Amino acid sequence: MPRVEVLKTYKIAIGGQLPRTESGRYYPLTGKNGTPLANVSLSSRKDLRNAVVAARSACGGWSGRAAFNRGQILYRIAEMMEGRKAQFIDELMLQGSSRAAAEKEVTMSIDRLVYYSGWCDKYQQSFGTVNPVASSHFNFSVPEPTGVVAIVAPEESGLLGLVSVVAPCIAGGNTCVVLASEQRPLSSITFAEVLATSDVPGGVVNILTGTTKELLSHFASHMDVNALVYCRHDAAEKMSIVQLGAGNVKRTMVWEKDWTKDEQENPYLLLELQEIKTTWHPIENIGASGAKY
Amino acid sequence: MKNSNALPDFRTSPVVDHVGIEERVARFTTRSIKKASKVQALKLALNMIDLTTLEGKDTPGKVAQMCYKALHLCDQLPGLPTVAAVCVYPTHVRQAKAALSGSPIKVASVATAFPSGNTTREIKLSDTRFAVSEGADEVDMVISRGEFLQGNYAFVHDEIAAVKEACGSARLKVILETGELSTLDNVRRASDIAIHAGADFIKTSTGKIQPAATMPVTLVMLQAIKDHYYKTGKMVGMKPAGGISTAKLAVQYLVMLHETLGDAWMTNQWFRFGASSLANDLLMQVAKEARGPYQGKDYFSND
Amino acid sequence: MAAAVAATTSSDINSMSTSSTKRSAVPSLSFFKDWTYVPAPESSDHIHLKDQYGLFINGEFVRPHSKRYFDTINPATEKKIAEIADADEKDVDAAVTAAANASAKIWKRMPGKERSKYIYRIARMIQERAREFAVIETMDGGKPIRESRDVDVPLAANHFFYYAGWADKLDYAFPNRRPQPLGVAGQIIPWNFPLLMAAWKIAPALACGNTVVLKPAETTSLTALKLAEIIQESGLPAGVVNIVTGFGKTGAAIVNHPGVNKVAFTGSTDVGKIIQKAIAGTGKKATLELGGKAANIVFDDAPIDQAVEGIVNGIFFNQGHVCCAGSRLLVQEGVAEIVIRKLKDRMETLIVGDPMDKNTDIGAINSKEQLKKINEYISIGVNEGAELYQSSCTLPSKGFFCKPTLFLNTSQSHRLVQEEIFGPVLAVQTFRTVEEAIEKANNIPYGLSAGIWTDKGSKIFNMTSKMRAGVVWANTYNKFDPTSPFGGYKESGYGREGGLHGLLPYVQW
Fold first, then answer.
1. Could you tell me the CATH superfamily of domain B35-292?
2. Does residue B24 contact residue B246 with C-beta atoms inside 8 Å?
C-alpha cells in the first residue's frame, strides 16, 4: 500500500512563535485542478495588533545589534533556504508555477538575501555623511531604521516578492509585520519556518496571511506602525493607505516592481526605510596654529 | 592654614565647553552700547584701571610720571574719575604711595617673583611682606603654573593661602597666567583654587605671556566667581590684564561683567582692568562723546 | 585661613563702593539697575517697500484675480506695513502653469552648470541686500534684528550658495543613479523663518532642476516678495520661481493642483496630516517638516554654564517660534537646583522689546493669534499645577509680546509637556537616570530634535543614538547649516532639508 502523506498545517508567525490565527478562521487554498492545498489562516485585526506589539518589542534589540551580526543572520537565512530549496520549489509549483519558474524564484530569493546580507554593514557608509558646517562643530548624518514597518507583500510573487521587500527592511534594522500574498501564501509560512531556525530574533519578521480587505485599514491606521510598504496594484487601496497613514504621519510607499529584475535589488529601497539623524558636537579649537582661547 | 587633606578635589571643578564660551562671548560683543550708556561705561572703565608699569627698565622718573597721569587723566576734560590704582614692582611702592597720598588711588604691587613665580616659598613670602611694608594696598601674586600643570593643586592652594596671610590687610589679586594654562578647564580649576585659598581678586595674566586676557578666559573666571557667590554669598573681584587696549573692548568686557555677575560688581572694588594704554583710548572716546569730532592720539599725553 | 577669605576688606575706593558682601540666605544677583543700554534701533531708512504687492507669476508682479488684498502688519507696533495679494485658485493655476511651462521648455533642459550660475546669482544678491532683508524680516515678523541680521539672512544666502554648487554634480550625490527633476514643486512655508524657509525650499528644488510655486505665510510675505524682486533682477527664466501669497486656502490650492508634482511643507503637524491626506492617490511626492517638542537633557556632569546658554538658546531663540525648540528641559536631579537658579538669573538679562533694537534678545510674538495661543498654554500650565516663573522685564504697551517663561515641576502627562506651544515657554522636568531621560525624551509623538548636555563622550553617543529625533545637538543647541540635513522622525514629518540628503526629495530616477 502506498504511504499516506502527512499534510502540513500552515500557520502564521508572530513574535517568534508559529500560532494559528486567534480568530480560528481560515480560507481554503486550492491547486490547479481544484485539489485542496491548505487551509490558510485568515488573520484578524487582533493578530495584526499582536504582531505589531511583537515587532515593536523586537525593534530595540534588532536595530541595536552590530550591523555585522545582522549581516550574518541574513546570510544564515539564505543558508537555511538553500537547504530547503526543494520544499520551496514544490510549494511554488503547487501554487501554479512551472518547475523552471519555481527554481528561478527560489534561487533568486536566496541570492537576494545574500545581496542584502552584504548591505547590512555598508549602507551606513554609502548614505551617511560628515557635513562640513561653517561653525566649529563636528556634524554627521547617519541612517537609522524607521522602526516598525508594515509590508503588504506582492501578490503575484509569493516568495521572491516577499523576500525582496523583507530583506532590505530588516537589513536596515527595522522590524516588520507582513501580509503575505493572498493567493500564494504557502511559501511565506515556510519562509517563516526558515526564519525561526536562522537566528532571527522573534518578532523581527512577523507574517500574517489573510486579506487586504480585512487588514489593510488597520495596517495603515495603526499608530505604532512607522512605515507602510504597499506592493500591490489596487488604486483605491493605494489611496487609502496614504490617507489613513496620515494619522501618525506614517511613511507610506508603494513599491510596484518587477521583482524578477536584478535592478530591483538595490540599497535605495533600504534607504526608503531609514530616517536620517544628524548629530552636532562642538570642536574646541586649542592647539591649532594661530588659535588662542 | 587649611589642611590640604580637607581641600576640595579641584579635579572635579565644573567643566567648560570652549565653543559654548566663545558663542556666549560673541553675544556680548554684539551689544550696541551708545550715547549715555557709552559715556557711563567709558567713565566706569577709566575708574577701573590699574595703571601699570612693570618693566625691567622702570625708574623713579617713569613711576613719577605715571602717578601724575593717574591723578590727572586729562585735565582738559571735566568730570573724569581717577583710575583705581597704579601697579608697580615692590621697589617702587614707597615712591608711588607718596606720590598718590591723599588721593583715593591705591597702590598695587606685584610680588612672589613676578612674572615667573619660580622661586622658593620663603622668597615669595618675603617679597610679599616687603611690598606690604612699603605701603602696598594691594598685592598681585602669580601662581606656580608648573606645579599646577603637574596636578599639584594642594601646593598651589597652600602657597596662595600663605601669601594671603602675608598680605595682612592688603587685598590679594591672584594671577593665574592663563596663557600658560592651555585649556579653559584649567582656567576654571585654577580660579577655584585661588578663590578657595582666599583670593580677593582673580586676575588673568602678568602681561608678559601671550595670549594675555581674553574674553573667553575672563568669562570662565567670572563664572567661577559667580558659583562661589551662589555657594557662599561672598564676592570675589576680577581683573583681566594685558591686551585690553581699546575702549570698545573695555566696554565689551563691562557688558560681559554686567550680564554675568550683575550690578554689584560694576565698581572698581570688584573689577579692574590691568592696562597701560587703555586709559588714553577711553579718554579719546570720552572726548569724542563730549566734543563731537573723532580724536587724535597726539592730543592725549602718553604718560 | 578660612577666616581670611575674600571680600572682607573695606577699602572704599573713590566712594564708588556698593554694599560689599551680601550675606542673605540665598545670595541673589541683580541686573540692569545701575547701567542700562539706551535704545540702539537699526535704521530702516534704506529699505524700499511698496504700499501694495502683487503676485509673482511667470517673472512678473501681477494683480490677483480676486482683486483682494490683505494687510501685513508689524507685530511690534501693530501698524500696517503693506498690502499683500490674496491669491485664489485661478492665480495658483496661473502660477503652476507658468512653472510647468518653464520646467518643460527651459529649466529641465538647461545644463546643471548653467542652472547653478543663476542660483549663485541669487545667493550673491541676497548678500548684497542683506541689511534690507534683515530689517524687513524684523519689521514684518517681529524677530530681533540681531537674529535676522546674524542668522536668518546669512543662512538663507548660504543655502543658495551651497545648493548652487550641487546643480551640476547630482550624478555624484547618488551612486549608480541618474537623478532627474520631478517637475513642479509646490512649497508652503511658515512664518517663523520666512526668508530662510524660502531658501531651504527653493534652493534645492532649483538645483535639482525643478520649478517652484511658493507660498509664504500670510503674516510674513514681505521677504519672499523681496526675494521675488531679486529673482526677477537675477534674470532667472520667467516661471522658474513663482511666489503666490495668501492664506490656507491658497496653500490648499497649490497642494491640490494636478500640475504640482511635489509638495514641500513646513508648518504644523495638523496641517501636515491634512496635506498627506490630500495628496493620497495622486502620486505627488511630499516632504513634511512639522512640529516638535524637543527634550533638552542636562546631566549632572554637563558644562553647566554652557548648558544654561543652550537652554536659553533652545527655547528663547526667535521667541520660541522654532519647530525644533528645546521646549522641554529634562534636568538631572543633582543639578536641577543650580541649573534653574542660573537659568532664572540668565533670564533676567534677556532684553525683551523692540525687535528693531540691536540689543533686543526677544522680540515680538508673530501675531495676535499666536500670542493668544501662548497665553492659553500659560493658563493651562497654571491650571495643571505647574509652578510659573517669568522674568521681571516690562513689556512694551503696544504690540504682541510675551515674557520669557518657565514652568517648574511639570509632569510628562501635563499638556504643557506634550503639546507644541511655539512660544517662549519652557516646561521643566527632572530625571534621575539615563534610562529615565531617554524614556521621557522619546515619550512624545514628535521626533524632530533633542539636546544632550554631558561631558562624557560615551554617554553622548549613547544618548544621541537613542533619541528618536532627526537632529540631535550635543553640548550645543539650535545650530543650522546648509550642509547639515534637518528633518524629523515620527509625527515631526519626513524628508530632509539641507546637505546631500536635502537633494533626495527633489529627484527621481
1. Aldolase class I (3.20.20.70)
2. no
